[in-house]
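Contributing new records

If you add data, match the layout below exactly. Sequence lines come first and carry their own label; structure lines follow with theirs. Keep one chain per record. Anything else will be rejected by the validation script.
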Amino acid sequence: MRRRASLVLLALAVFCAALAPLLRWYAYPRLAKIPPNQYQAVVLEAKDATLLDYTGGMQPRKVDKVTIVQTLKGDVEASREIEADAGKDVVVWDTLTYIIGPDGKMVSRIPERYIFDAHTQDPVHATGETVDGDPVKREGIEFKWPFFTEPRDYLYFDAQTRTSSPIHYVGPRTYRGMDVYYFEQTVPWTKVPMPKKMPIEGIDPATIEQTTGTTLWYTAEVRFWVDPVTGAPVNAEQDIRQEMRGGIAAGAPEGRLTAFAGHVTMREDYAEHTRALVAANRTKILALHTYAPAGLALGGLALFAAALWLEARGRRVQASPVSGP
């Protein structure tokens, strides 16, 4: 009976030992990916900001708050179409950055279509890759870092300038009890396209520069706190400045008008929701990548030791002399 039990334990030990590396190096690379149907919304705020008053004399004014609503929606059908040509799992995100002034009216809205590899987060270049309707060819990451982010610099795409530049790894940090990586990027003053949708009806922003000589310039200091397991930012802050130069700004000091200046942060309720969401996904990734393979390996060793112990005990019983009457 003991011999049969030891054989069963040995078979289970072999099964666990074989399943552990299979789960880690075969299942994990295939199962760990961004779902194509993801939907997410986040609200950011810039308090005590400076905003150009388009309807009140085109002068910059201090305002209590500017609200930025960012939505992200996966396009499943577009993902399937691109996957057929790309030969790999692809995610298509349609995002919208909607900026609202203190009066509740729209300041601008900028849509994006972001196409990337579901496993590595590397950009996938396909028809429809755009920012505010303009075709782009992204290099590097945007919105999300890869799974198991490394403590190093990455190339990060800035939607305002339509260019990529390094975002620098600064060091480890703790954010709301989570161990995260902290990144910083400074975007120097750069001439950028004007948003196609602006608060003044009947004006085509594309013609403003041509007819008045007015140009829009942008600079930003960007900071991200990134969970290294999921690669998802748990917090983000930006110091943004936008200026109109020349043309209608010619009469302003130094020929510049501040279109926007503010410190943008995540609203508190969305910050906590984002942290909780990332923490839940972190547990799932670790279970697939680390906990389950390690548990199976340790379980296999324990079962193997138990099988050897039963076998040795059975042999000792068989070898012991039988006492007579």
